[in-house]
């Protein structure tokens, strides 16, 4: 299994967080970046027990009126090879503090950095898929993942047309998330990845098996086939 997005930097004991994941059969994970402090913290997390990838990005919730300094630091990190992906980046019209206009400026700038450095993206998009898709067309990145997907199958198809993988997490454990479950059932196997978004959605990457079991209940493939395919897809999406 490969956890396509989690946040061990937020855990009280990050080393135990990673160790538990490995013990549960997680072979790799992506540490999602939130802001410059979070990026630096993730640099210190290492383990030989599984593959640890890192993304750096200014999350929509961390966007402010002036993000020039953070984005300059991000560009320096990417030039130095300190990240495997640019993320989490995107748009959020539900919970972000920054205006929608400021979010769009930051998102476009980070998409351009991803394109220029040849890095995949990790997208966080809430109630803003139309504009996010337009910006992806303006600044197309070399692939990546739409994380925590809960929208309809037709929206998933639009992201896949742009070369992105679709990641499903804790929403699949909730019977009332009909759109997420319909999308998880319809996304082609080769574009499907899974995540915990730990500790926000599930406590630990060790809980990834719960997402896998829920996904298995929605699709014709066996649990073992889904585990193998989603892990391979995550590695492909993140260019490992």
What does this structure look like?
With 240 residues, this protein is α/β, with parallel strands linked by helices. The chain has a single domain, classed as TIM Barrel, CATH 3.20.20.140. Helices cover 42% and strands 17% of the residues. It contains nine helices and eight strands. The two termini are 15 Å apart. The relative contact order is 0.17. The mean pLDDT is 94.
Secondary structure layout:
Layout: E1 2-6, H1 14-23, E2 28-31, H2 36-43, E3 51-56, H3 68-79, E4 85-92, H4 100-117, E5 121-126, H5 129-138, E6 144-146, H6 153-161, E7 164-168, H7 178-186, E8 192-194, H8 208-216, H9 223-237
Parallel strand pairs: 1-2, 2-3, 3-4, 4-5, 5-6, 6-7, 7-8
């Amino acid at each position: 299994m490969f956890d396509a997005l989690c946040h061990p930097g937020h855990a009280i004991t990050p080393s135990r967080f990673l160790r538990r994941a490995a013990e549960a059969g997680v072979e790799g994970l992506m540490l999602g970046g939130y802001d410059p402090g979070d990026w630096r913290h993730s640099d210190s997390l290492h383990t030989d027990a599984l593959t640890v990838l890192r993304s750096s990005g200014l999350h929509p919730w961390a966007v402010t009126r002036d993000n020039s300094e953070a984005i300059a630091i991000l560009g320096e990190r990417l030039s130095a090879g300190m990240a495997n992906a640019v993320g989490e980046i995107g748009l959020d019209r539900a919970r972000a503090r920054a205006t929608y206009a400021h979010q769009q400026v930051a998102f476009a700038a980070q998409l351009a950095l991803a394109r220029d450095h040849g890095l995949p993206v990790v997208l966080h998009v809430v109630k803003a898929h139309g504009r996010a898709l337009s910006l992806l067309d303006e600044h197309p990145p070399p692939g990546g993942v739409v994380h925590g997907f809960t929208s309809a199958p037709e929206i998933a198809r639009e992201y896949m047309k742009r070369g992105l993988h679709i990641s499903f997490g804790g929403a699949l454990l909730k019977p009332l998330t009909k759109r997420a479950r319909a999308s998880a059932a319809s996304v082609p196997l080769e574009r499907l990845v899974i995540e915990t978004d730990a500790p926000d959605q599930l406590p630990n990457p060790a809980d990834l098996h719960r997402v896998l079991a829920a996904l298995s209940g929605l699709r014709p493939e066996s649990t073992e086939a889904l585990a193998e395919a989603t892990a391979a897809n995550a590695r492909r999406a993140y260019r490992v």
